[in-house]
Design brief:
- Helix 5 packs antiparallel against helix 6, helix 9 crosses helix 20 and helix 21 packs antiparallel against helix 22.
- This protein is α/β, with parallel strands linked by helices.
- Strand 5, helix 7 and strand 6 form a beta-alpha-beta unit.
- It is globular.
- It contains 22 helices and 18 strands.
- The protein has three domains: about 150 residues, Phosphohistidine domain (Glucose Oxidase, domain 1, 3-Layer(bba) Sandwich), CATH 3.50.30; about 110 residues, PtsI, HPr-binding domain (Enzyme I, Chain A, domain 2); about 300 residues, Alpha-Beta Barrel (TIM Barrel).
């Protein structure tokens, strides 16, 4: 559950007695309280809360007669039409604000509104079962939502959010209730749940920030808020039930902190912090396009993690030197339909040509078993089941099409391939053999011949750490996915609020694994990169450099700040720091050591 305290510590780390007394004298609902969630998009917002709740409505449930059946089907069709008009409007707003990449989310929803199977199934049930449309719509969508919600895969959970949004939209339009999309200017929006459409539309009111009970760091709403530079804190449990419109609030999207009824000294503290962060970001942006080097001249390279090709325009301005992770599974626009080879080829080629000569690392589809409509089994735990390279090996038609598309697109020789969820050298050998086969065939067909992509392995499960010596002798490069590596090593679901405090990237086991993986890869002359959230953490930066890491792939917006920090460190200092951290036996001691190093620099 979200952590709650009744007061904040002062900057020195001790509690001011007067503040405790003053806070305690207030009624409980007016006291300063602090809650911990998940930081989805960095930044600090200070202002009034606005509770945003969607209308549920009370609908009649009586059985339809012969006359009202036809009227009900007409109402259903009219609701589909109104929903499409809304989504097209949202799509236009999204394209204007963020480009085509994110607007594709709504294009997929529009396609679903035209799905003849869904329309016919709902119409038939209204006619034969004589049930009102809203009941049938709810029952039809809830069948899919149950499966989606039971999935532990983040991308599939996002698809559930999209489906829920379509369901609610159709039902609202069935009863001709107006879309609520304008709010008072400059508020912090609190809600149990927000859809991507909600965030896009509400952002037109110059919203200062968002907080939600649900959601994760990589959910669509978090990614959209990052692109819009709006702070958001997600995964707050039931906080939306405890706050009210007009309540003063502070949110910190970097730390996942929400403070209600802040005292004056707390507001002053966060105002200074916000000003300092802005000043630091401005300074960092001035040198973002310059190469990053340590004080002793060791070169550190930063690449970008991206989801859509439309994000490529921001690479050079941020100082990114290529794409270290393109999550190709986002080409599954509706969560089920496999993109054709021709579609993939055009997409990959456009990306590669846009950034040439910079590298483009494409991760093969990292899809979970629940994502495919032809999945033959319902898995109790998809994260430990049929996903990643396992699916691709079992469904060669998907793997073949993607590998052929990537090879064909590699006309400039700047595309590499990342294989997800590796636990054995045999899996790498399997992919390498297929690449060799397709490359030999395509080399005869293309003039001039395309270049063969290099192959990398994702290191994200403990088995890959144990086999790191063999793996790094068999691939051209590795990329460490610290999010999954932490999750699997500590047996902690990173999206489970109940055990959220146990998901600790600075756990001694994790930092020792990282030291071992980076050192072994270095010994075997295998390029090494980190692409998980740890790579974006300024606290972890000198430790990772000290372990021997020279390549980072992170969120584009984090690159200027990280590059500005690199120049503060010497290699000798970071190596000494890494060895000191390896001796420590707790996360708290490691973080304290890293914080002291950061403060000294």
């Amino acid at each position: 559950m979200p952590e709650k305290t009744e007061h904040l510590k002062s900057e020195s780390g001790t509690t001011t007695p007067e503040s405790v007394v003053n806070n305690a004298e207030k009624p409980l609902h007016e006291r300063e309280s602090t809650y911990s969630g998940i930081g989805g998009s960095k930044g600090i917002a200070i202002g009034e809360c606005y509770t945003f709740a969607k209308e549920e409505g009370i609908h009649e449930i009586e059985e339809l007669n012969d006359k009202t059946i036809s009227e009900e089907i007409e109402r259903f069709m009219a609701a589909l039409h109104r929903s499409e008009k809304e989504l097209k409007k949202i799509e236009r707003v999204t394209t204007r604000k963020l480009g085509k990449g994110y607007s594709n989310l709504f294009q997929a929803q529009i396609m679903m509104l035209h799905d003849p199977v869904l329309i016919d199934a709902i119409s038939l049930r209204i006619r034969t079962e004589r049930k009102p449309a809203h009941i049938v719509i709810t029952e039809e969508f809830d069948q899919y939502l149950e499966k989606f919600n039971n999935s532990e895969d983040l991308i599939f959970q996002d698809r559930a959010d999209d489906l829920r949004d379509i369901k609610d939209r159709i039902i609202r339009n069935l009863h001709i209730r107006k879309l609520h999309s304008w709010l008072p200017e400059g508020v912090i929006v609190s809600s149990y749940h927000l859809s991507p459409a909600d965030v896009i539309l509400l952002s037109r009111s110059n919203i200062k920030g968002f907080i939600t009970d649900s959601g994760g760091k990589t959910s669509h709403i978090s990614l959209i808020c990052k692109s819009l530079n709006i702070p958001i804190v997600v995964g707050l449990g039931n906080l939306s039930q405890k706050v009210s419109t007009g309540m003063q609030m502070i949110i910190d999207g970097s730390t996942g902190t929400v403070i209600t009824n802040p005292e004056e000294k707390t507001i002053a503290h966060y105002t200074r912090k916000k000003e300092n962060e802005k000043k630091h970001e401005d300074n960092a942006s001035l040198t973002a396009e310059l190469p990053a080097s340590t004080k002793c001249g060791v070169r550190i390279t930063f690449y970008a993690n991206i989801d859509f090709k439309e994000e490529l325009h921001a690479l050079r301005a941020s100082g990114a030197e290529g794409v270290g992770l393109f999550r190709s599974e986002n080409l599954f626009t509706d969560g089920t339909k496999v993109p054709r080879e021709a579609e993939q080829y055009a997409y990959y080629r456009e990306m590669a040509e846009t950034i040439v000569p910079m590298p483009l690392d494409i991760r093969l589809f990292d899809i979970g078993g629940d994502k495919l409509i032809y999945s033959p089994v319902k898995e109790p735990n998809p994260n430990l089941g049929w996903r990643g390279i396992r699916i691709l090996m079992d469904l060669p038609e998907i793997l073949d099409a993607q590998l052929r598309a990537i090879i064909r697109a590699n006309t400039h020789g700047n595309i590499d391939i990342l294989i997800p969820m590796i636990i054995s050298v045999e899996e790498i050998r399997h992919v390498r053999e297929i690449i060799e086969k397709h490359y030999a065939e395509l080399a005869k067909e293309t003039d001039p011949p395309v270049e063969k992509p290099e192959i990398g392995a994702m290191i994200e499960v403990p088995a890959a750490v144990e086999l790191i010596d063999e793996i790094t002798k068999y691939v051209d490069f590795i990329s460490i996915g610290t999010n999954d590596l932490t999750q699997y090593s500590l047996a902690v679901d990173r999206n489970n609020v109940i055990v959220q405090d146990l998901f600790e990237k600075f756990h001694p086991a994790i930092i020792r694994q990282l030291f071992r993986v980076i050192g072994t890869a270095q010994k075997n002359r295998c390029r090494t990169m980190i692409c998980g959230d740890m790579g974006s953490d300024p606290l972890a930066l000198p430790f990772l450099i000290g372990c021997g890491l020279r390549r980072f792939s992170v969120v584009v917006s984090d690159i200027p700040n990280l590059k500005s920090l690199v120049s503060r460190y010497s290699l000798a200092e970071t190596e000494a720091l890494a060895h000191e951290c390896l001796k420590l036996g707790s996360s708290a001691a490691i973080k304290a050591c890293l914080a002291a190093f950061q403060a000294a620099h």
